[in-house]
Amino acid sequence: MTYRRASATAQTEASAEDILKALSSEKQLEFLLEIVRSDKHWEEVAVHRFGELDERRMKAEFVSGVEDVVRQYSYRGFVDYRSAFRCERALHEYIDEFFGPLMKRGAYDLVLQLTFAFELQLPKVAIDDSDDFFGCMIDLINGYWNDLLAVDNSGVAQKLFEWLCELVCSDDMEEDYNGILCYLQNNARNKIEAYFACDVHFAKQIEKLADAMLRDFSATDVDQMYFYSYEQTKWAMIRLRCMMALGTPFSDLEAFANTRPPSYDICQILVQSALQQGDDDKAISLLRRFIERMEGGAYPTEAALDLLKLLDKHNASGEVVDLYLDLISKGRAQNTDQLRSWIRKARKRSGENWPQKKDELITRLGGDYRRLAELYDMEGDLSDLMELIREHGSFYDLQHYESSLSKAFPHVFLSRYEALVREQLFGSPAKRGVYRESVGILRRMQQIPEGPEIVMKIVKELRVAYPRRKALMEELDRLPTSIEPIAI
Hints:
Mean pLDDT: 86
Helix content: over 70%
Low-confidence stretches: 3-7
Number of helices: 26
Strand content: under 5%
Oligomer: single chain
Order of helices and strands: HHHHHHHHHHHHHHHHHHHHHHHHHH
């Protein structure tokens, strides 16, 4: 017979925690040492939690680990599109596992240094970037920077600032297989603006950096003109934010902005500053001046919409209507709903002057068929709409405005629809899809004045001519039979 031994907990009423608390410090240490010597896991836990970190060794270990992950998914030194996403996931997991314990331990400076080391490694990774591998890795590092800055550690902020400044000024990187330096510099510039440009402690340094970058990007290389212009605008925005953080008078902000090429982003910073100070008139003046400076170039839709909101707020009806006419006639509406919304608002704000304003808009639209058609439809100018469609439109345009035109011009629709149905259904057999489409047209004809009689005639002819076309007969059976003839 086998007897069960009493468990350790059954031999005493005290818990393990109570027993350990009752021991002397020497006995507690002796017990801990015994655990550490007998279990590798707890030995590693003790080293990581209480041991002095060897930053050089940790950095070397981290860099080596990143290389191992990339090598695991490489074939002949390159990670192709088939392995790129798995490589990205593996790197993400490796970095989280490596940084997690260090963040818990409060080794923020070391984590920051490791993010710098990782950014230096990225250009050396030869990988297919169609899944935005580099963008995802940069976002991962940005997330850790956000966490580190949230700790409110001024030393970390200073070191990060110095790193970002060094990065944006870099000319080249060794083994930059994918041209990743440009990505890193764009991200560094954006982080300088987001983290530090509005901080008075960094604003003076950033002003000097921005001035240097503006001078560097003042080159006139035609091949890279767009790139230089974009970078100049971004650094000008950063400098403006620094000037605002330092309490620079608004007149000086305007003077600086006027030295730059017209940019909506720069204008928006000044407008927001004016609005925060409660100076709506200044904001309106800034937007008007920007729109004037853009005369002859791309129409500044965003600025015009901002100006509309402010003018609407101050009931400046005349200028509001003119702006709406500008937006409509220059084709700035993103879709039909926005176009119709602008027409409605222009009509409402014009009041009794709408007939004259509408004629002006028609003249300005000229041969713009699409926008003219929407205007005629909204205004109920059905004769003009039908004439426009006959001259410039197609069968599908006719269908688009059927609900507006079918009662006024039923014969136009019925003759077009009947011709199409007869072409599709009479003659050689067709697939069920064609039958279903044609019956759908017959159903639409039933909703038009005098349409039901024509539909009844066509259906009767089809049943007599093709009684053995089962699919056609089944589709015809789905037609409503209780619709009364609609009079004009």
